[in-house]
Amino acid sequence: MTDSRTGWIPPTVIFAGILAGWEMLVRIFEVPPYVLPGPLLIGETFGKDSALLFSSLAVTLRITLTALFFAALGGALLAFVMSWSRWLERSLMPYAIVAQVTPIVAVAPLIILWLDGDAALVLCAWIVAFFPVLANTMAGLKSADPNLNALFRLYGAKRWQVQAWLEAPCALPYFLAGLKISGGLSLIGAVVAEFVAGTGGAATGLAYRILEAGYRLQIPRLFAALVLLSAAGIAIHAVIGWASRRLMARFGMEAP
Questions:
Q1: How far, in Å, are 46, 62, 70, 75 from residue 115 at the CA level?
Q2: Residue 6: what pLDDT?
Q3: What's the mean pLDDT when you consider all of the chain?
Q4: Which of the residues 24, 53, 129, 192 has an alpha carbon 20 to 30 A from that of 123?
């Protein structure tokens, strides 16, 4: 219990040391703020521009969470569908792999050209976040004990009953592990899509603020936006991890 309560101390000390060293080097070598601002200037800029940055963050989070929801729903449903037969898995999995391995930065301009507004951004983020949920859920469904599967069949269980009462509980830890991966990927996909939309002049979320700050050489604001974006990613990972632990505890299982 003591280790879990004090586990945050070492990374916090290291982080504080990095910030102190960064600030000291910037001051010693008199690095201009438009090249590399110090942590104190970044913090000051963050406080001054917090309203603008948080309003942009809300847009990015809306896109990210929407894409994550549909990635979790679609990935889990497709995994259950493909698990019904080897033929379905062999027919559909190659297309899921193609969507995963295709660089989103290459197809994002086309998607933004074909779709309007947030729909294009959500689709870009969904493409990035979809595959981990699908692949992990498929692995979980296949991890069910073959002997228990045979016992279910021996007692006359239907295919959907085997999935609901045997395979689904086995797949839950795998699904949650995939969801934790997809949480960060959906944010990355949203940011990439916003960068592409921002280069076209469409003001969207936090990524647009980063582009805008870079164009205007407002480097402290750029760093403040990056810090906020990183904090959002950490928060998404932490919330999914907390929810996973609570959910798995209800089933008497260890969270991934």
A1: 33, 17, 17, 22
A2: 67
A3: 90
A4: 53
Question: Cα(first)–Cα(last) distance of the chain, in Å?
Answer: 19
Interatomic CA distance for residues 237 and 231, integer angstroms: 10
Nearest-angstrom CA–CA distance, 38 and 12: 18
What six digits make up the tokens of 184? 């960060």
Cβ atoms within 10 A of the Cβ of 20, count? Answer: 11
What pLDDT score was predicted for residue 1? 43
Number of neighbours of residue 16 by Cβ within 10 angstroms? 10
Taking Cα atoms as reference points, which of 100, 58, 45 lies closest to residue 78? 100
- The H or E element spanning position 210 is helix 206-215
Q: What is the amino acid identity at position 221?
A: R
The amino acid present at 242, given as its one-letter code, is: W
